[in-house]
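Reopening: structure tokens for the heme C complex, inputs below.
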Amino acid sequence: MLVILLMLVALPVAEAQQPLGFSHSAHIGKARMQCTDCHVGATSRDQAGIPSIRKCMLCHQFIAKDHPEVVRLAEYWERKHEVPWARVYGFKKEAAVQFRHAPHARAEIACAQCHGEVSTMTVAVKTVRHTMGTCIGCHRENKASDDCLACHF
Ligand code: HEC
Ligand code: HEC
Ligand code: HEC
Ligand code: HEC
Ligand code: HEC
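Re-run output (same inputs, fresh job):
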């Protein structure tokens, strides 16, 4: 029990505990995938989205089936469960923030500017802090909207 408590205390605060050892770098490197192959809304919609397990299993019915983390993935699949990924970025509901990915992609702002170098990470780690101040700071620099209702609903 004590050991478990100590492990929890030692975790870096920014790192979400994920149910599965997913690796971004393996998919960008070995599998030669792009961010938008999985986060299909990141350039065209409000939400980038997290892929459904169906997408993972298109490949992992065949690829790396013996890898222990892929075995665990297949267990979720057999039980017809989605992987319960913990959220990394986001705002509390009371802040009523409406973030939209598409306008930022149109303005050619790289994913890395707001999320760090995810292509070298295993699971995503929160490396960039987004506050009202950082949003508005960049908006003023780029003559984008600082109207309350652009960002809040
Ligand atoms: C386009 C095919 C493809 C898709 C889709 C895909 N993967 Fe993979 N995945 C790969 C390849 C290729 C590897 C590297 C295998 C190797 O190391 O030989 C890999 C490796 C892995 C590994 C082992 C990690 C490691 O350290 O090597 C895990 C776990 C994994 N994938 C989970 C997932 C999950 C979860 C999804 C869905 C969100 C997913 N994959 C979607 C192709 C894919
Ligand atoms: C201008 C900053 C910015 C840029 C550029 C950006 N994001 Fe985001 N992203 C955010 C913020 C802020 C959130 C949290 C939004 C929320 O929860 O309301 C987020 C959330 C996400 C999520 C969580 C799921 C979701 O749909 O909310 C994923 C995945 C993601 N971004 C991927 C990407 C990818 C891939 C790119 C590049 C194509 C990208 N982002 C570009 C700021 C950005
Ligand atoms: C094979 C599919 C796949 C690819 C390719 C991929 N991701 Fe992800 N991404 C995931 C999965 C699964 C998660 C949930 C686990 C985690 O948080 O790491 C995730 C989580 C994230 C998150 C955190 C979402 C949140 O909860 O707020 C960000 C940001 C993100 N990815 C950005 C990127 C960027 C940028 C790229 C390209 C460099 C990329 N991803 C490529 C599958 C993928
Ligand atoms: C790195 C710079 C940068 C950051 C950081 C940034 N934005 Fe933006 N944002 C822009 C630019 C540039 C546009 C596009 C303006 C345009 O199309 O005229 C934009 C557009 C938007 C739009 C669409 C506005 C409209 O009128 O349609 C919303 C909503 C938005 N951003 C919300 C946010 C929020 C919320 C955050 C913080 C979580 C944020 N942005 C962080 C640069 C940024
Ligand atoms: C460019 C985007 C943007 C604009 C414009 C903006 N906000 Fe925000 N605002 C945010 C984000 C993002 C947060 C959440 C920050 C966090 O979680 O740290 C926030 C948080 C807040 C909060 C705190 C909510 C809470 O419960 O914690 C208030 C109040 C607020 N904004 C009011 C305003 C008002 C009033 C205006 C207009 C004068 C405005 N905002 C304009 C992005 C914006």
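The CA atoms of residues 32 and 109 lie 22 Å apart. Residues 35, 39, 42-43, 47-50, 89-91, 97, 99, 101, 104-105, 109, 111, 113-115, 130 surround heme C (ligand 2) (CB under 6 Å). Marking as resolved unless the reporter disagrees.
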